[in-house]
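Predict the holo structure. Ligand: L45E5XJ5.
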Amino acid sequence: MSAVRENGVIVAIDGPSGAGKSSLTKLLARRLGYIHIDTGAMFRAVALMSKRAGIASDDDAGLAELCRGLEITFVRDGENCRVLANGEDVSREIRSEEIGLLTSAISARKPVREALLIMQRAMGAKGGVILEGRDIGTVVFPDAEVKFFLSASAEERGRRRYLELAARGDQATLEETIAKVIQRDRQDEGREHAPLKQAEDALPIDSTSLSIDQVLTVMENAVRERLVQGDKG
Ligand SMILES: Nc1ncnc2c1ncn2[C@@H]1O[C@H](COP(=O)(O)OP(=O)(O)OP(=O)(O)O)[C@@H](O)[C@H]1O
Ligand SMILES: Nc1ccn([C@@H]2O[C@H](COP(=O)(O)O)[C@@H](O)[C@H]2O)c(=O)n1
């Protein structure tokens, strides 16, 4: 491989809901000194703003108009990142289960995907970046130097999400949470535009019975190996 991009390689982490993408992206970024971009947060910000504006999830013209007037930015806040929509911090509000399901519906719409694709490519082009989402390795950066497809069984992903919600005092049951995870998978895999799927050249990782640390080690080794190949290229 010839010299990598200006700031390093692009790492794509795709996979279904609750597989551990956000957790691993942050940890891996810290290990590598890279920035990380949570593309799901961008779709969530569009969903939240569409809800507030009363735009139906199948109103393509309304969604296109909304995206034209929407600026999404990330502000580093220590280890975390705050998400701003037109300057307003929406980091907390976008995390509800309701917005998660609405996001899955609006992210299927072509104008939304087109608008965010442009933003995501601009954010990642210089490299030295880890992007996590559903279509990073297949659509956003099909030429990413390292691609992972992180998954786990729906039961395990639902269990992890349930524990997270319970810790926040949410009343959801385990069965409901698993059902929502499965519903979101179906919507994300079944949509016409940029569906969730593994890129052919992605390294699959099934984290069902792996700890976060074990997954992190596999990922870090794979990226470092690629960086060494790059130096030789
Ligand atoms: N290997 C693992 N073992 C145990 N728990 C894990 C593992 N990976 C992630 N988790 C936990 O599972 C929950 C979901 O992880 P995370 O939010 O990183 O998933 P995600 O893929 O980004 O989900 P989403 O796409 O819905 O945002 C978190 O509570 C996280 O701590
Ligand atoms: N590249 C992406 C990222 C996300 N989505 C959609 O957003 C929803 C929320 O994502 P989270 O990772 O924050 O849970 C997700 O269910 C997808 O519908 C996407 O389409 N493409």
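The longest strand covers residues 72-77. The beta strands are 10-14, 35-38, 72-77, 80-85, 88-89, 129-133, 146-151, 203-206.
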